[in-house]
Every structure is written in structure tokens, then in C-alpha cells.
């Protein structure tokens, strides 16, 4: 085990996969000479050269479309999109290209590409640099969407994503990059589509991904002081979703809170609620509670932004209400 | 002249253009009988572009094309039957009936593939070229795109990167004078769209797109350059869509005198005339009869081929985790 920052764990995953497989290449804006605006790709250009580590023009639409066909023709591209807020520019390549070919071409092509991006609020970056568009991405059949919360999962899941033959959108969070944690050494992958129970509990299950897992863990401490035993399930992967882990946890606690940093309407929290209805309705003693962003743009000023973001305190309130 | 196709090569281009024309006419007839499904974009009158441009390519080279790709499918080596069967949604189609006529692919032949999002083929071919450059395969990617597609934003992004990184990609502009119905002068302030190539440090050549030999010559010079690692190039082929936009086109926007004038310069007539002196009438008649029979047989077989069955649980179906 080594103590690492989340960003360093991602960097290690990229480096190891590039060392192991010459068909892996990384490209994106400011990722080469500068090492990425969040320093995730630091040092890669020095080690692997300008052919496999490319600084690109500001061309999200074409870059994503190019990743799709590069992946179809023998390479394993890892594209960095600087902010999740720029994902709308990539959508044609995801919705109308990447996600369809495996099926409509009857299995003739593989699509091993990873789109890395980072989202989320709390850093005062304003309405165009703070969003979590995970719901929009998880809506697309044929694309895997993952959002690890720990440095260990960041490394293991990025390695797994690069080796996956389907397109994977890999969601990072700007406020997780500096978080630290133990990361197993060597070639350890973490499978996509498997949840992890980070804290066992018996009264209520809280399901979250990415930075919301950190908030959920804090909420569990608050709830413990309230005399409530909360189980925290880090879904890790939004799609494919580990439905079994969700059902197993609810079978124990009979209460559920779902947390998502994205918008509420048609959002991922709504999907989780419906999934719980489909698979565990009889186990529930109360309706599923949703904790999400309100349906509005993310404001800049600190008190405004803080007031609207999902937080440990809001998760606690939702849990207590559900248990009443 | 350098890069001129041999008589045999030109004869094969002519044969494939004939296959495409019979394919288009067969589809037109069946459409009138109400036996086709969905819109079909015929390329009558433009066969020289798709066929002669792809005739330059080698087996490992790849091509991305448009919603009007029949000439490219046949030009890059697909047989007629799997194309027709795909258009009729049969299990025996190139993609098992899942793709339809606009999105046909045959990965083994390097056709990946048709694309019905206008402009999307441009970054598609550019991405393939990026992959070829990284792997050092020595192959070339080709993009066939329309005068409408040339106006998209993604065209600029992709061509900029192609020029910047000297990617092995050749952009073949099929300038058939119209977008869907809007004439090119209403879409762009410049008549010759390939003047834009200069902005991407790409050489460009404008050719008569109805002359297969001219298309072949210009494209092969660009392909050779790209293969040598000297970067992308563009060929603007001036041609005309003599059968309108698609089978759902209600017409009224193409001038009858223009259609008549372009019909006189039909690419099949241009090639036939050029080949007549070299190979003689008997040889041409033989090839023409054989092409007609080949397409007729492909239709006959395809129309009695089985339909596919729907299933959610298949090896290449990554979409079924949540039902
Ligand atoms: C992104 C997008 N916008 C609009 C359309 C509808 N559409 C289909 S073909 C076409 C015209 C394309 O013109 P051009 O590229 O010149 O090709 P042509 O049909 O002339 O072969 C349009 C507008 C589409 N399919 N995709
Ligand atoms: Mg056109």
C-alpha cells in the first residue's frame, strides 16, 4: 500500500497502462507540456513522447468523435475533457456514434476508449464549470459511466476502464483530486459495475458516487450521534449498476436515501429510486428519499453555492425524515 | 500521365459504377412499388466519386462515408448482395439488418462506415488516421463528405487537427451542388469549398467529379502523399445529384435544364467513351450485361432472404443490463 492523492493515483494508472500497452494514448487540452489543468497527466509527455501524449486544439466535438474511430481501428484512446460542463459538446460522438456501432454493426468493431472528465461544485467555478452531468451520460445505452470516490478505486477503475472494450466515461471530481488514501501497489484493477459497502449499518442505506460518498460518510457520523446506524454504499459505477448490492443493503435496512450531485428532474437519483421500486419494493418500510441539486444553475457566490449543493447535513435530514 | 489508372483499373471502376447504377435504379423501382422502407439516398450521377476515389485505396485503408454511400460501399470492395440485403433489413445483410442503407459497415473491407449525422464522417476518418499514425500502420483513411457537410463546425475542428498533426487522411468532397434542398450558393459564400484547405496547410485539387479518371488521378496523388507521411489532402469533385435528395424528395428545386445537362455528362457515359477505343464494344457489352445480371440476382436473393429476429440477449449487445 502507498499513500497517494486521487490525482496521483490516476496518473499512476495512466502511466502503468501506457507502459504495458503501446496502443494506449492520451490526448486533450493542455494535458501534455503542462500536465493537465488538474495535473493528472503530469510527466506523461516526457515519458511517452508527443505521439502518444498530445496537446490538442480546443475542439471537444471532433476530439471525441476521433476517439471513437481511433478506438475502432486498433488504439485505446484516453481523452481528457477538461470540465464535465463541456460534455454537451461531445454528445453527438457519444449518443450517435460511440454508443451505436457495436450493436448496429453486429459486433464487427470494438470501442475501447475512455473519456475522462471532472465535474462537481464547491470550488466557486460558476455555472459553466461546476456541473455534474452524470445523469445525462448514464442515460446513453452502450456507454459505461463510472465515478470512483477513493484514490484506490480511481487507480483500479481507470486501469479497468482502459482495458475495457466498450466506451467508458470516467467521472472525476475537482474536490477529490487532493484527497488522500491508501492505494494497493502493482497491477490491481477494480471491476466496473461493482459497488463497495464503505460502512456497514442496520437502519438506513445511503447510496452515492464520487464526492457525494464523502458527504454520505460524514452524514453517517452525524447520524450515529443521532442514534441511527447508516450503511454507506459507494456505487462506484453508475452504469452498469450493481443492482444486487442495492437490493442486499435495503433487505437489511428497509430504508434508502439516494444522493446525486446532479439535477433532480429526470436525474440519476430518480433512476435509482425507480430501480429500487423495481427490485426491492417489498423490502421498503418508507419511500426512497432523494438528495440532489435543485433544478437551477449553480451560482458563484459562496453562500449561494453552498446552500444549494447536496451535503452531509442535507443527507442527514433526509435520512431522519425517512425514518420518522 | 502520373497516377492515371490502367485500362484494367478503369474497366473495373466502370464495372463497379454499373453495379451501383443498377442498384440505385433497382431501389427506385421497388420504392415506386412501395417495397422499400425508410428514406433511401441514391447517388445516381455521382458514382465516379465514390468508386474511383476508393479504387485508389489498399485493403488495410479505411473509409468513412455519408448517408449517400452506395458507391463507396461497392467501390471499397463490398459485394452487392450484402448491401442490398442490408437495405431490405435482412438477416443476411452486411450488418444483419440493424444498420440500414445509411449506416452500412464492413470492417473487414475497411468500410466503417456510412454516417447519417451530416459532418460526422469528417472527424471519423480523421480519428482513424490518428490511430494509423500512432500505430505506424502505413495505411490511409479516406473521408467522403458533401458540400453540406463542409459547412459544419466539426469539419473545421477535424481538418485543423489533420493538418496540424500531418495525419494520413484524404478528404474527398462530393460537391453535388445541394445540401438537402438548399443550393450551395445559399450555404456558403465561396463556390470552391476546397480553397479552405489552405487554412489547414493542405494541398487541394478541384476535378470533374463525373470523370472517373480525373477523380482517380487526383485522389491517388493525395493518397500517396498521405501514405508517405506528408499529411492530409483534399480533392473537390464537382458533380450532380440527378435523382434528387432521397426517395422522399418531392422535387421542385432542381432545374430541369441542369438535370438534362448533367445527364449528358453522366459518369457512366464519360467512362464508356474513354474505354471504347481501348477495349472495344464487345468487351463493354459483356461487362454491362454481367453487371446487370449480378445486381438482378442480388435483389432476387436478398428479397427472399430471412428477416432477423429481435433479441435482447446477444454477445454484441452491451445494452441489456437493466431490463
Ligand atoms: C447533423 C445533421 N443535420 C441535418 C441532417 C439532415 N440532412 C440529411 S442529409 C442533409 C444534406 C446534406 O448535404 P450534403 O452534405 O451536401 O450531402 P448530399 O445529401 O448532397 O449528398 C441534411 C441537411 C442530418 N442528417 N444531420
Ligand atoms: Mg450535397
Describe this structure as you would to a colleague.
The complex is a heterodimer of chains A (324) and B (323). Chain A is an alpha/beta fold and 324 residues long. In chain A, 40% of the residues lie in helices and 21% in strands. Chain A is built from 11 helices and 14 strands. The N and C termini of chain A lie far apart (42 Å). The longest helix of chain B is centred in the C-terminal third of the chain and has 38 residues, at 267-304. Chain B is globular and about 50 Å long. Chain B has helices at 7-32, 47-55, 70-75, 80-87, 121-135, 153-164, 212-227, 256-264, 267-304; strands at 62-64, 105-106, 111-112, 141-146, 169-175, 204-208, 233-238. Chain B contains 9 helices and 7 strands. The N and C termini of chain B lie far apart (62 Å). Chain B has one domain (7-307): Thiamin diphosphate (ThDP)-binding fold, Pyr/PP domains (Rossmann fold), CATH 3.40.50. The chains are: A alpha/beta (324), B alpha/beta (323).
Amino acid at each position: 500500500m502507498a499513500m497517494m492523492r486521487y490525482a496521483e493515483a490516476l496518473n499512476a494508472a495512466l502511466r502503468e497502462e501506457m507502459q504495458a500497452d503501446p496502443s494506449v494514448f492520451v490526448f486533450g487540452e493542455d494535458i501534455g507540456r503542462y500536465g493537465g489543468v488538474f495535473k493528472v497527466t503530469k510527466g506523461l509527455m516526457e515519458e511517452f513522447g508527443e505521439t502518444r501524449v498530445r496537446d490538442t486544439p480546443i475542439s471537444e466535438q471532433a476530439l471525441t468523435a476521433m476517439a471513437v474511430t481511433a478506438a475502432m481501428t486498433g488504439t485505446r484512446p484516453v481523452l481528457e475533457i477538461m470540465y464535465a460542463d463541456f460534455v454537451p459538446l461531445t454528445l453527438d460522438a457519444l449518443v450517435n456514434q460511440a454508443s451505436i456501432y457495436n450493436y448496429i454493426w453486429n459486433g464487427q468493431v470494438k470501442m475501447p476508449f475512455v473519456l475522462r472528465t471532472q465535474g462537481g461544485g464547491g470550488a466557486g467555478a460558476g455555472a459553466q464549470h461546476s456541473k455534474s452531468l452524470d445523469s445525462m451520460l448514464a442515460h446513453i445505452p452502450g456507454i459505461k459511466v463510472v465515478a470512483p470516490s477513493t484514490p484506490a478505486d480511481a487507480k483500479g477503475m481507470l486501469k479497468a476502464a482502459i482495458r475495457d472494450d466498450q466506451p467508458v466515461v470516467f467521472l472525476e471530481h475537482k474536490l477529490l483530486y487532493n484527497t488522500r488514501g491508501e492505494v494497493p501497489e502493482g497491477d490491481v484493477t477494480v471491476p466496473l459495475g461493482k459497488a463497495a459497502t464503505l460502512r456497514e449499518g442496520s437502519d438506513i442505506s445511503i447510496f452515492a458516487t464520487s464526492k457525494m460518498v464523502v458527504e454520505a460518510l460524514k452524514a453517517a457520523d452525524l447520524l450515529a450521534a443521532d442514534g441511527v446506524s447508516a450503511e454507506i454504499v459507494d456505487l462506484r459505477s453508475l452504469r452498469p449498476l450493481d443492482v444486487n448490492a442495492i437490493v442486499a443493503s435495503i433487505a437489511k435496512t428497509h430504508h434508502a436515501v439516494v444522493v446525486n450531485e446532479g439535477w433532480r428532474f429526470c436525474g440519476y437519483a430518480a433512476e435509482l429510486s425507480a430501480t429500487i421500486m423495481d427490485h426491492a419494493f417489498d423490502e421498503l418500510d418508507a419511500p426512497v428519499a432523494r438528495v440532489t441539486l435543485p433544478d437551477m444553475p449553480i451560482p458563484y457566490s459562496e453562500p449561494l453555492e453552498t446552500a444549494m449543493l447536496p451535503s452531509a447535513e442535507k443527507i442527514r435530514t433526509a435520512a431522519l425524515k425517512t425514518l420518522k | 500521365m502520373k497516377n492515371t489508372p490502367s485500362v484494367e483499373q478503369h474497366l473495373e471502376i466502370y464495372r463497379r459504377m454499373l453495379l451501383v447504377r443498377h442498384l440505385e435504379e433497382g431501389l427506385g423501382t421497388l420504392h415506386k412499388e412501395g417495397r422499400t422502407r425508410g428514406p433511401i439516398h441514391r447517388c445516381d450521377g455521382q458514382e465516379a466519386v465514390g468508386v474511383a476515389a476508393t479504387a485508389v485505396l489498399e485493403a488495410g485503408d479505411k473509409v468513412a462515408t455519408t448517408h449517400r454511400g452506395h458507391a463507396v460501399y461497392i467501390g471499397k470492395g463490398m459485394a452487392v448482395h450484402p448491401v442490398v440485403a442490408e437495405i431490405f433489413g435482412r438477416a443476411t445483410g452486411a450488418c444483419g439488418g440493424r444498420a440500414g442503407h445509411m449506416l452500412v459497415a464492413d470492417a473487414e473491407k475497411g468500410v466503417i462506415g456510412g454516417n447519417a449525422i451530416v459532418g460526422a464522417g469528417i472527424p471519423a476518418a480523421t480519428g482513424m488516421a490518428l490511430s494509423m499514425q500512432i500505430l505506424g500502420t502505413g495505411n490511409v483513411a479516406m473521408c467522403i463528405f458533401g458540400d453540406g457537410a463542409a459547412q459544419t463546425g466539426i469539419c473545421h475542428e477535424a481538418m485543423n487537427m489533420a493538418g496540424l498533426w500531418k495525419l494520413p487522411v484524404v478528404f474527398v468532397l462530393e460537391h453535388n451542388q445541394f445540401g438537402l434542398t438548399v443550393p450551395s450558393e445559399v450555404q456558403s459564400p465561396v463556390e470552391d469549398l476546397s480553397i479552405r484547405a489552405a487554412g489547414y496547410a493542405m494541398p487541394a485539387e478541384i476535378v470533374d467529379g463525373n470523370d472517373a479518371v480525373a477523380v482517380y488521378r487526383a485522389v491517388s496523388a493525395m493518397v500517396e502523399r498521405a501514405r508517405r507521411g506528408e499529411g492530409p489532402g483534399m480533392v473537390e469533385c464537382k458533380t450532380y445529384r440527378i435523382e434528387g435528395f432521397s426517395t422522399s424528395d418531392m422535387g421542385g428545386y432542381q432545374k430541369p435544364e441542369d438535370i438534362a445537362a448533367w445527364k449528358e455528362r453522366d459518369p457512366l457515359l464519360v467512362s464508356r467513351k474513354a474505354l471504347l477505343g481501348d477495349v472495344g464494344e464487345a468487351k463493354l457489352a459483356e461487362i454491362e450485361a454481367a453487371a446487370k445480371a449480378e445486381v438482378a440476382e442480388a435483389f432476387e436473393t436478398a428479397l427472399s432472404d430471412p428477416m432477423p429476429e429481435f433479441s435482447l440477449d446477444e454477445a454484441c449487445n452491451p445494452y441489456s443490463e437493466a431490463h
